[in-house]
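Let's sit down with a protein and look at its sequence and fold side by side. Please make up or recall a protein chain and show it to me in full. Label the sequence line and the structure token line clearly, so we can match residues to local backbone shapes. Go ahead whenever you are ready, and we will take it from there.
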Amino acid sequence: MPRSTHKPDQSQDRLFASEQASADFRFDAAVARVFPDMIRRSVPGYTTIIPMIEVITDQYAQPGSHCYDLGCSLGASTLAMRHGIADRHCTLVGVDNSPDMIERAEHYIALDDHPLPVSLRCEDILQTDLQTASVTTLNFTLQFVPPRHRNALLERIASATLPGGVLILSEKIRFESDSEQETQTRLHHEFKRANGYSDLEISQKRSALERVLLPETLAEHQQRLEKCGFSEVMVWYQCFNFVSMLAIKSS
């Protein structure tokens, strides 16, 4: 974790432990309350990705620029970026459209012992103002944006990014090969079982997510990022069907 006094909420995720009517997944108060436990037990590599966002931010944050965490949820990536920025006098902005997430993010950021101010915006990332950015993070966020809006969002991010700036994009992906898709999905489910989730919880959460979390292939992500204006796109982390990419704008 980033070097901070942030103490994550230890409430255990039991949201899908009992039979319930089918409904789409929502980032509401119930999810916000258990989110640290949920994402740690559901996303392989998450506890590696967060501190590496600090490392990447340290390498690419430019003095006097803006740094954005789009879809900041409880602010884990925001805190990592905060510590990576150090004393470069950047403006750090976290954006999320869930009031429940923003409320808890404010609490965690207030607990963090770091002097850099953080501006939190409760608004749609498709509408938020972006300018002179050196580091932008979309940490498992784009997958929840309707596919028809993804290109425009990434074009706006690329346009706002300074030469030499970067986008950190973490996503759940799908595979072009049916065989690889089946294998990677099975391994992901085994990861969840190893973390204490029952078959009922895995099945019900998958059903709740299937209409709102719409993954794409790695090739689709890479081609779109290059088309939108990033000169180099690389995978810096992958575990099963979860990937984090670094998109760099030429200097």
